[in-house]
């Protein structure tokens, strides 16, 4: 481990993640030192972050950076063979190591899920109405008629036109954007405290993406639910998120509120990601990040970005960079931490 300098804090399981307003409530979700190994792959290493009620947290990073594994670890959806350590608490309740029955209850009642592939999440042989009514009745002791009325209300809430007629449609009769809205409606049935959306808009065109994300943000605010949005698209994050965490090689390499992250990124990987986002109204073509994404075997022993980093120095491979804090902004770049970037 590299000596962290005055800004370094240790990675303790009960470590306080500063940065939320003084006296802020207990976090809804508290992830501490989460480490996941899948066979030979160190998919996630020593991950700590909080999600507060009403907050929209973006998790960004290239393909393979550990975003989906993190989401699945929180939801108890990793394969049995996964080696998991650390802590994931939902309002104080430890979820790591909870029984599959408990995790089914948590997924049913407390954490809603929105995945990329809405078509795969809906059953092609049942109408939208049948599927929503069944889900509603699994959560509420209500008649079919009442459930159907609530299903129509939910479709209205997520902006589906002519909701009553749409109840009788089959999934293939709807557009991709409408299907994704229905998945959001389905995720809302249990009135979850947290919605985890893993690349929910990747398959949609840009205008529809924006509508679906605005909808998620609006519903989250109205219901005081939190959203954890997993995406590889920083443009999407800029439009919706309050806070952003950048992942690289299974490591959380930077986290800040969205304005700070975009105005003053500290980690060379975040900077490279930002340079790779095409900007509206600018002629300069976006820059691809040179090299290939990290694939981490066995365990992390150095900065995972070092092979691609133009600022790399021997100190970067002497150990995993510790966290450096600048107010509520944290990052894991040794060189930036020394004030040399
Ligand atoms: N079921 C699995 N078995 C083995 N390795 C996996 C499995 N799922 C993901 N991985 C590996 O874990 C790492 C993180 O993957 P993932 O979280 O899916 O990345 P992403 O950021 O693209 O969502 C990758 O190296 C991936 O190859
Ligand atoms: S720690 Fe070193 S290799 Fe890693 S991002 Fe910072 S300068 Fe680059
Ligand atoms: Mg993924």
TrEMBL record:
Keywords: ATP-binding, Cell membrane, Membrane, Nucleotide-binding, Transport. One of its GO terms (biological process) is peptide transport. One of its GO terms (cellular component) is plasma membrane. Pfam families: ABC_tran, oligo_HPY. It comes from the Bacteria. Belongs to the ABC transporter superfamily. This is ABC transporter ATP-binding protein. The lineage of its organism: Bacteria, Bacillati, Actinomycetota, Actinomycetes, Micrococcales.
């Amino acid at each position: 481990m590299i000596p962290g300098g005055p800004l370094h804090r240790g990675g303790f399981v009960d470590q306080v993640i500063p940065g939320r307003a003084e006296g802020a409530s207990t976090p809804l979700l508290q992830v501490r030192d989460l480490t996941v190994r899948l066979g030979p792959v160190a998919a996630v290493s020593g991950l700590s972050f909080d999600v507060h009620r009403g907050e929209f947290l973006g998790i960004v990073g290239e393909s393979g950076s550990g975003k989906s594994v993190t989401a699945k670890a929180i939801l108890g959806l990793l394969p049995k063979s996964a080696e998991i350590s650390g802590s994931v608490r939902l309002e104080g309740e430890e979820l790591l190591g909870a029984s599959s029955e408990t995790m089914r209850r948590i997924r049913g009642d407390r954490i809603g899920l929105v995945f990329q592939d809405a078509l795969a999440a809906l059953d092609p042989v049942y109408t939208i109405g049948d599927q929503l009514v069944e889900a509603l009745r699994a959560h509420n002791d209500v008649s079919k008629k009442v459930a159907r009325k609530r299903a129509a209300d939910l479709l209205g809430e997520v902006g589906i036109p002519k909701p009553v007629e749409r109840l009788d449609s089959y999934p293939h009769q709807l557009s991709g954007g409408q299907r994704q809205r229905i998945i959001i409606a389905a995720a809302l049935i249990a009135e979850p405290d947290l919605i985890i959306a893993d690349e929910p808009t990747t398959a949609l065109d840009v205008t529809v993406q924006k509508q679906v994300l605005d909808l998620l943000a609006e519903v989250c605010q109205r219901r005081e639910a939190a959203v954890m949005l997993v995406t590889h698209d920083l443009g999407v994050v800029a439009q919706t998120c309050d806070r952003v965490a950048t992942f690289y090689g299974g490591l959380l390499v930077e986290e800040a509120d969205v304005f700070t992250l975009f105005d003053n990124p500290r980690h060379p990987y975040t900077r490279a990601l930002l340079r790779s986002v095409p900007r509206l109204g600018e002629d300069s073509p976006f820059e691809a990040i040179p090299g290939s994404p990290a694939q981490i075997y066995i365990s992390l022993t150095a900065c995972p970005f070092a092979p691609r980093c133009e600022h790399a120095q021997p100190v970067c491979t002497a150990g995993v960079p510790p966290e450096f804090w600048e107010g509520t902004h944290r990052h894991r770049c040794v060189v930036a931490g020394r004030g040399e970037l």
